[in-house]
Design a protein that fits this description.
The complex is a heterodimer of chains A (71) and B (632).
Chain A (H helix, E strand, L loop, with lengths): L1 H37 L4 H9 L2 H17 L1
Helix pairs in contact in A: 1-2, 1-3
Chain B lengths: L4 E9 L3 H11 L3 E3 L18 E2 L4 H23 L19 H33 L1 H7 L12 E9 L3 H15 L4 E6 L4 E9 L3 H10 L3 E2 L11 H55 L2 E2 L3 E9 L3 H12 L4 E5 L10 E2 L11 H4 L13 H16 L2 H17 L3 H25 L23 H29 L3 H25 L4 H22 L3 H14 L2 H22 L2 H35 L9 E2 L8
Parallel strand pairs in B: 11-12
Antiparallel strand pairs in B: 1-9, 1-10, 2-9, 3-8, 4-6, 4-7, 5-6, 8-9
Helix pairs in contact in B: 1-8, 2-3, 2-7, 3-7, 5-6, 10-12, 10-17, 10-18, 11-12, 13-14, 13-16, 13-17, 14-15, 17-18
The chains are: A mainly alpha (71), B alpha+beta (632).
Chain lengths: 71, 632
């Protein structure tokens, strides 16, 4: 039971952070596509901006790893 | 590093200004600076010599406008002309760009090229229109001979949807009613969705038929305007004929344009360059200052070039024109152009800085740190001998072929460093296209990334902490250099706080004695107080953000594990299918993993620098160095 709860917690940690990242990237991606259409020279900056919300899922992943390995 | 720049003033007699500008233009090292705003002199000060800007007036102003217009026209013409394939033919001759004869010669060349270009555009447009009607024409053309002889009737084409056969029946009933049965209807499928119908009715019934089609919402075939005014049958025949003629005509016009380009492209390009150079000199004149008898030119140049330029001016003008170096004031730092100069091995990494605005003059050039950490992070994420070797091979191939010019050379140098790092980490992790290395005696030296997740996380966070601490230390050094005491205290305190937090964390994990951890914890409180006093109540939040930045480096571990897992999936797939299919699937998956494994680590490694590392010390807003030269 306890192991199951730990697994569920790890899944929730990474699942919700993935959803948050996906939502943020969808917004940034849409704005970025518009930006590149008008100013193609900003392509590199847009790609970097798109990578910024990945911190959330990375932190979610770290929490999940900590739950699984230290639980 | 950022090259030391000098603020200089070139002084000489007013009559020597044009020659001095010419000389500076040829030397091409001085970046001109507009007349700086001097602070107002105190009321009791001795009357100073007044320096005023040299306004362009009369003939110079007219010449500037004329050159701008000529430059614009030349630019437009060069955009229209295709790049000539063969330049060995006879080249056209244009007079000097500033001479009155040039304008008339340009008129003649321009009208010739524009006429050809307009013809090409018209033919391309016509080809597009005819292409749009091609399916319809193919479907209806066989029906036309039956109608060609009729002169007292009107032919109307309509398009109807094939999934609405009742529409055709309805139209036919109505047409029969309008014409009293005197009509003909020819039907042909155009594509899967539409069918073309040719309705022939007496001329007097044509108007009512059009109204009926409009009311029923049935689309009548609208032919291009240029073909209008003729019976549909004639127009459709004409369209078919034109669809066969246009490609040949277009090839002819393009060949003429290419021949014109062979003759005029190079002279026009030279003329545009000459116009740009003359404009640059005129504008340089406008950025100079003058007194009753002397001229003054302000500018920036690398300090190491000062002596050489001074010597050239001295020699050319026999001591009548001199160069003086002045100290750069603190408020002028944002104005100073920036030149980066790094050793050959590090220089390619300046490419990664090009996504941001250059560092401000007087700040830290982060290129050496990018050169050290970017390949390290990339290698840690990709960490595979096989993938690294493929990337190295591609980078060397691109370099040998000279793909992408100068930019490509820098990119391949960065890729070479990153791939070598991936190979080294591949050896340390014992990975060769995932776990295939085991078959060749390759075993993990450091740890197995797929299994030792906590160890990998620890390594990633340790690297992150080192990177962030280095960033804060650079910020501290920069603040000390500029004499910003409060900022320096804040940076030093932040540095101590992070180090203290690290010691506490290590003590909790048992890597350092518990007593040391307790001592560090006790020291954190006064440090926080100092930080709040210096930076305000929000300063602790900034420290929390910095600590959070360290956790962001966990992505090194996350992407590394994703890479090794995908490689393992590819290898296992081979066992689930027959040999040929399995190997093909495995190769495809490895190819996908390689593409992702190159793209994602590059983005993430760059991002760790731009967002986490640079935030601690990087001062952007530097101006690029653009000397007044023949190339400008």
């Amino acid at each position: 039971m306890e192991k199951g709860l730990l697994m569920l917690s790890a899944a929730l940690a990474i699942g919700f952070s993935s959803l948050a990242t996906a939502w943020a990237q969808s917004r940034i991606g849409a704005a970025g596509a518009g930006t590149i259409a008008e100013k193609p020279e900003l392509r590199g900056t847009v790609i970097i901006m798109l990578a910024i919300p990945e911190t959330m899922v990375i932190l979610g992943f770290v929490i999940a790893v900590m739950i699984l390995f230290r639980g | 590093m950022i090259v030391r720049m000098s603020k200089v003033q070139v002084l000489g007699p007013r009559r020597l200004l044009p020659e001095t500008i010419e000389c500076l233009h040829t030397q091409g090292v001085l970046q001109l600076r507009s007349l700086p705003d001097e602070p107002a002199a105190p009321a009791d000060a001795r009357p100073a010599v007044r320096v005023r800007k040299i306004p362009l007036a009369g003939a110079e102003l007219t010449q500037e406008r004329s050159l701008e217009e000529i430059s614009r026209r030349l630019q437009a013409l060069l955009l229209v002309l295709p790049v000539p394939r063969d330049t060995s033919g006879e080249s056209g001759v244009l007079p000097d760009v500033a001479s009155p004869a040039f304008a008339s010669e340009l008129d003649s060349v321009e009208s010739e090229i524009r006429a050809l270009n307009q013809r090409r555009l018209a033919l391309s447009e016509e080809r597009e229109i005819v292409g749009r009607y091609e399916r319809l024409l193919t479907a209806l053309f066989p029906l036309l001979p039956a109608l060609a002889e009729a002169t007292h009737v009107e032919t109307v084409g309509i398009l109807i949807r094939r999934d609405r056969p009742e529409a055709l029946r309805l139209v036919e009933q109505e047409v029969a009613r309008i014409t009293g049965g005197a009509y003909s209807l020819l039907f042909r499928e155009v594509d899967k969705e539409q069918a073309g119908v040719l309705l022939t009715v007496p001329r007097e019934a044509a108007h009512e038929l059009s109204r009926l089609l409009f009311e029923q919402g049935i689309s009548e075939i609208k032919l291009p305007e240029r073909y209008s005014g003729q019976p549909l049958v004639t127009t459709l025949s004409l369209l078919v004929r034109r669809s066969r003629e246009i490609p040949g005509e277009l090839r002819g016009v393009e060949a003429e344009l290419l021949a014109g380009s062979g003759r005029w492209h190079e002279p026009l390009r030279r003329a545009q360059r000459a116009a740009q150079e003359r404009l640059a000199k005129l504008r340089a004149l406008a950025s100079c200052g003058e007194t009753e008898h002397a001229f003054v030119i302000w500018g920036w140049l690398p300090s190491e070039r000062c002596a050489a330029l001074a010597a050239v001016l001295e020699q050319t003008f026999r001591g009548k024109v001199s160069l003086f170096e002045h100290a750069i004031r603190e408020h002028e730092l944002g104005e100073v152009p920036v030149v980066l100069r790094n050793p050959a091995l590090i220089r390619p990494f300046e490419l990664l800085l090009s996504l941001l605005s250059p560092p401000r003059y007087g700040s830290v050039d982060p290129t050496p740190f990018l050169a050290a950490f970017f390949p390290l992070f990339f290698g840690l994420m990709l960490g595979d001998v096989g993938y690294g070797a493929v990337l190295l091979g591609l980078a060397l191939l691109a370099r040998a072929r000279g793909w992408g010019g100068e930019l490509g050379r820098s990119a391949t140098a960065v890729a070479t460093a990153a791939s070598l790092s991936a190979i080294v980490f591949g050896v340390l992790f014992g990975e060769y296209f995932g776990g295939l290395g085991e078959h060749f005696g390759l075993h993990p030296i450091l740890f197995n990334r797929a299994e030792a997740v906590p160890a990998f996380l620890g390594l990633a966070l340790a690297l992150g902490a080192t990177h962030i601490l280095l960033g804060v230390a650079l910020g501290l050094w920069s603040a000390l250099r500029h004499g910003e005491k409060e900022k320096a205290i804040a940076k030093a305190t932040t540095l101590c706080l992070i180090l203290g937090a690290l010691v506490v964390a290590l003590a909790r994990l048992g890597y350092v004695p518990a007593a040391l951890g307790t001592a560090a914890l006790v020291a954190l409180a006064p440090l926080l107080v100092v930080l709040i006093v210096v930076e305000g109540v929000l300063a602790p939040l900034e420290v929390m953000k910095t600590v959070g930045n360290v956790f962001s480096y966990a992505r090194l571990m996350a992407l590394g594990i994703a890479s090794v897992m995908l490689a393992e999936v590819a290898n296992r797939m081979a066992g689930y299918f027959p040999v040929v299919v399995g190997v093909t699937v495995a190769l495809l998956l490895h190819a996908v993993n390689f593409a992702m494994g190159c793209f994602s680590p590059a983005i993430q490694a760059a991002r760790l620098h731009y967002v986490e590392f640079f935030d601690k010390f990087y001062e952007d807003g530097g101006r690029p160095y653009e000397p007044f030269s023949l190339a400008s």
